[in-house]
Amino acid sequence: MPEVPAISGTPDLNPSQPTRLTGTVREAFSETGPLSRVFDGYEPRDGQRRMAEAVASIVDTGGTLLAEAGTGTGKTLAYLIPAILSGRRVLVSTGTKNLQEQIFFKDLPALREALGASFTATLMKGRANYLCLHRWAIYRDGVEGSTSAAGRLIDTSDRVLLPIIDAWAKETETGDRAELRDLPEQLPFWSDIAATADTCLGADCPSYNDCFVTRMRQRAAESDVVIVNHHLLCADAAVRQSDYGEVIPFCPTLVVDEAHQLEDVATQYFGKSLSAYRIDDLVRDGERLTTGRDWRNGADELTRALARVNDRCRAFFRGLAHAPRGGGGQDSRVRYTADSLDDHFEAGMALAGALEGLEATLALAQPPSAGATVGDEGAAAPDSDEAVAALRRRADELKADLRFLMRAADPDFVYYIEMRGGAGSAGRDANANRLFLRASPVDVSRIAREVLFERMRTVVLTSATLAVDGSFEYLKGRLGIGHADELRVASEFDFAEQALLYMPKPLPSPKTAAFAEAAAREIVDIVTRSRGRAFVLFTSYAVLRTVQPVVEMALSYPILVQGTAPRTDLIERFRETPNAVLLATASFWQGVDVVGEALSCVIIDKLPFSSPGDPVIAARMDAITAAGGNPFEDYQVPLAILALQQGLGRLIRHRTDRGVLAVLDPRLRTMGYGRRFLASLPPAPVTHDVESVTKFFA
């Protein structure tokens, strides 16, 4: 790419004398510019051009830009084109893999043709998406050499898949799990062969030069545009101090698309977590080291040390699974303190001691000599010294995490027990295996600022939903952003003609049992008038479960329900099934794009307030109170406004789309804070008369 020199001075988001880059960008988006020659039906959009010029200006001068671009703006091209034309390497982080793939496989090839620019690009996914050649060799040889691999019985179905994966491993260029389209989506043993940071040997691995993650990083280091998602961005930042995990190369320009999701993802990756799964993986990998290898000494001691870790792990997590739980025992996340873990302290310290003992045993053990053989092929035992060192490191990390979580003493973190999938009756081990001990940062602003933003020369954060009450202050506070240039671009869609906002006459309070039944009747009425073609989005599974049988009995349209099939399958079935109705919760409120008449109505049951019983939400509310703020007005309401905007944003995705937005929550009209929500809604005509819905679809 041609290098464009930086222009010093203060960024001007509406420059009267544009820099070379802003002038080039302005030309690209003109009526007769290069985009018009490549994109059929191209029409210049004032908002898209304004955003592109703002991005060009901040890339020229350095700094931070917050850009809210309403639906239909075309924000992806608005940041990609100035980034490409700038000549500087750019890192683009998206909220979803779908947007990652759209940019890499669709947008960038089109821009190469349109701009006549020569640039390279790499798509990077999280490490667990890629095959680890080293772990695959150990797993494959262990399966072929015995009836089990590291203590886990090998199912017949697993054995059938091994030749397929082996053939693919020899010919794939990327090692990306997504290439195995004909295999089950959830391979039961993929975690045993994936290139996770925990198990990585780094440069000491004998397969390092051929490693798919190494190759991906090398491609990215040589690329002009690197495409990641927020999960990889934050996971990579969290392990940046380690030699074993970092994969994203440095880029001076960072673009964060769907930036409204970043705080939630950062909360997940900048915390601590311990589960039986992590310890099981350690034990399993340790057992593999002792299987089929001619150890010089220490194998018996290692076997016993691994067994002790396994036993102590089972005892500790069984105890936690059956501990008294707040909130009636139904909450999936329950806050704890060090005092509340007193009954489990002894078991926790016993597990920490077993991990320390394993670490000491590994330090004394003598692995096989380089000439020892494995399996039928007589191959030299791979990197036993490096594998032992990696196990020691993992045992030490697990011990440190466990002690941190048991002490629960850092005021910057909130500590909680999470039960994934809910508590069941399948036995103690089943419940223990679903349990996670976690610590999450109460405030990610300092971490995000220091680890992500301050490393970059230029940062652009964009989304269709960033501002609350017409201001970026909420987002800036949550992400630790100081001075920033700001731009808000209204949606290109004509909501006055394309949409209708329906708020029924007040239903019962959402806090009463009567609300779900009244909402069910209202949903049936609206969906009948829209002839199906609707998303019904709920804030809780409880209301969904109450409404579902009523809807299924009253409507003749195909009903799709979250949880009955994978998310992507449900969306595809909705697109392909005439007059379908989808009942869903939080995961369908964003990142779902259905264009055309297939989706003509979006119904939302309640204002999407986060539960104050959630440990992280509660801790953040406590922190705001302690600082003299109002946690409801300053945190819960803004967070709910952004979520509501995302949910309603599923409806109008194209200039030809038409549809009805319906919000059933009476608090929009009866509570003072309802005005803040109403001000954030699309500028569509408002009606309280359901007959207007019929007329809209006539």
Structural class: alpha/beta
Count of helix runs? 27
- What global shape is seen? globular
CATH homologous superfamily of the largest domain, by name? P-loop containing nucleotide triphosphate hydrolases
Our Rg estimate from Cα atoms comes to: 27 Å
CATH top level label of the largest domain? Alpha Beta
Cross-sheet strand order for the largest sheet = 3-6-2-7-14-1-15
Q: How is the secondary structure organized here?
A:
Elements: H1 20-28, H2 34-38, H3 46-61, E1 63-69, H4 75-86, E2 90-94, H5 97-115, E3 121-123, H6 133-145, E4 148-149, E5 152-153, H7 156-171, H8 190-193, H9 212-221, E6 225-229, H10 230-238, E7 253-256, H11 262-269, E8 272-275, H12 276-290, H13 299-321, E9 333-335, H14 342-364, E10 373-374, E11 379-380, H15 384-407, E12 413-419, H16 428-433, E13 435-441, H17 445-453, E14 458-463, H18 473-479, E15 485-489, H19 495-498, E16 499-502, H20 514-530, E17 534-537, H21 541-554, E18 559-561, H22 567-576, E19 581-584, E20 601-604, H23 615-626, H24 631-648, E21 659-663, H25 667-670, H26 674-680, E22 686-687, H27 690-696
Parallel strand pairs: 1-14, 1-15, 2-6, 2-7, 3-6, 7-14, 16-21, 16-22, 17-19, 17-20, 18-19, 20-21
Antiparallel strand pairs: 4-5, 8-13, 9-12, 10-11, 12-13
Descriptive terms for the model:
single chain; 698 residues; alpha/beta; Rossmann fold; Fumarase C, Chain B, domain 1; 3 domains; 7-stranded parallel sheet; 27 helices; 22 strands; 46% helix; globular; disordered N terminus
